[in-house]
Design goal:
Length: 431
């Protein structure tokens, strides 16, 4: 037998032995067979916990129930309100200081009715007015996830509310005015995607909690939902989602809305301030399908603004103020936002035609010039471009002139800004 023939027979025998021993032979030539991985069976309890983690993130539970750099869900975070400080409770499965002795029924009652295990009515800083729409199955999944976390023994701190707001009996009146109990029911005639988006926006996402004005009693009117309002004790304005003169989304593409929610930036805008925290903690973890569903629902919100846009305000600005604003803009802002305010989307948002710049309240653009800020670092935008603060190099008059300039230049129709408005916000900056 020729040497080459012997070699080939030996190789054939070796291959056959390998097949017999391993039970399978994958051809190594690229493209012949795809790499195959046997599916791993997932325990039903694990599936429930994983789903609960996803839903807890959609509800942004960690934002309130975790002190920065502290143990997750151990509570203790101070939540400032116009009535005093609320201290968020421990929701880890610790038997003594957390929810370790709770059961799924008690957890659902709390989510659905705003009444705790011990029968106490919860203060509405806990968004039970939105969470009441969460289904029992989703509530049970969230509970299973919370119970799967390590127990942290950290005693809850008593609230520090002024009289008479420390009397929980007052919540009876508040609830009669502003709370309607009930799970979300799909709306007939709307698509599955629209209903999924409505469920997330109105329920776990509790978006209306910020984007609706809050009155002196700490309540909001359902008829004014999503019409915008100041976020209590944060000095940021959550713009109207129902007005195309503010952040109304009727003219936006679904992808741009979805990107803003999930990525933090899009070709139409960028999130900063409290909304950046929401995207970082919560919305970036949404699936593409859920992010798109929320976008579909938000885009469908009826626009309630009048047909007439605000008048162009440039004629109300003194020429010397415009010149100061222009000089600062050219020196500090144009390198990113462009000489004509067109920006370089999505990294540097446009200022010309940007409704977040020209809204009735100038709080947000003033804060951006003073504080600077970054969009959130997200899975799809891990290295966001940020804006430096200018509070240390611009005085109140210069900041007011700069914000005035960007609100009225390039045919923008915002109103001028006064130095006092800047100073009122500057005093809130940390020293």
């Amino acid at each position: 037998m020729k040497p080459m023939r012997k070699f080939l027979l030996a190789m054939a025998a070796l291959v056959c032995t390998a097949v017999a021993a391993g039970g399978a032979l994958y051809l190594l030539r690229p493209g012949i067979l795809p790499h195959q991985v046997a599916p791993v069976a997932v325990n039903p309890s694990t599936r429930t916990i994983n789903r609960g983690e996803y839903l807890a993130r959609a509800g942004d539970c960690v934002a309130c129930h975790t002190v920065p750099n502290g143990p997750m869900f151990a509570g203790g975070r101070a939540m400032a309100t116009p009535f005093g400080n609320l201290y968020v409770p421990n929701i880890t499965p610790d038997d003594e200081t957390g929810i370790g002795q709770w059961n799924a029924e008690e957890f659902y009652r709390m989510m659905h009715t705003g009444v705790s295990r011990d029968g106490k009515r919860l203060y509405p800083a806990m968004p039970f007015a939105s969470y009441t729409q969460v289904t029992r199955a989703d509530s049970d999944a969230i509970f299973a996830y919370l119970m799967s976390n390590p127990p942290i023994r950290q005693k809850n701190r008593e609230h520090e509310l002024r009289f008479p707001f420390n009397n929980r009996d007052l919540l009876i009146g508040w609830r009669s005015l502003y709370f309607r109990e009930g799970e979300f029911k799909p709306v007939a005639g709307q698509s599955v995607q629209w209903n999924r988006g409505a469920y997330l926006v109105k329920g776990l996402g509790h978006c209306a909690m910020c984007h609706t004005a809050v009155n002196a009693l700490g309540g909001s009117s359902e008829s004014k939902a999503f019409e915008g309002g100041m976020i209590p004790n944060q000095n940021w304005y959550a713009p109207s989602l129902t007005s195309n003169h503010e952040a109304g989304l009727g003219e936006w593409a679904i992808k741009d809305i979805s990107d803003l929610l999930q990525v933090g930036v899009s070709h139409r805008g960028t999130v900063y301030g409290p909304m950046a925290e929401v995207v970082y903690n919560s919305l970036q973890y949404l699936s593409d399908e859920d992010s798109a569903a929320m976008a579909v629902y938000l885009k469908s919100l009826p626009q309630k603004d009048s047909d007439a846009a605000p008048n162009q305000q440039a004629r109300l600005v003194r020429p010397e103020v415009m010149e100061v604003g222009r000089k600062v803009y050219v020196a500090q802002c144009a390198v990113c936002h462009g000489a004509e305010g067109k920006g370089q989307a999505p990294a540097y948002p446009p200022l010309a035609g940007n409704r977040s710049i020209t809204m009735a309240t100038p709080v947000n653009p003033i804060r951006m010039v003073l504080n600077g800020g970054y969009p959130p670092g997200t899975g799809k935008n891990p290295r966001p471009h940020g804006m430096p603060p200018f509070s240390h190099i611009l005085n109140d008059e210069e900041v007011a002139a700069t914000v005035t300039y960007i609100r009225v230049a390039w045919s923008n129709n915002g109103a001028p800004v006064a130095a006092k408005q800047v100073n009122d916000l500057r005093t809130l900056l940390p020293e």
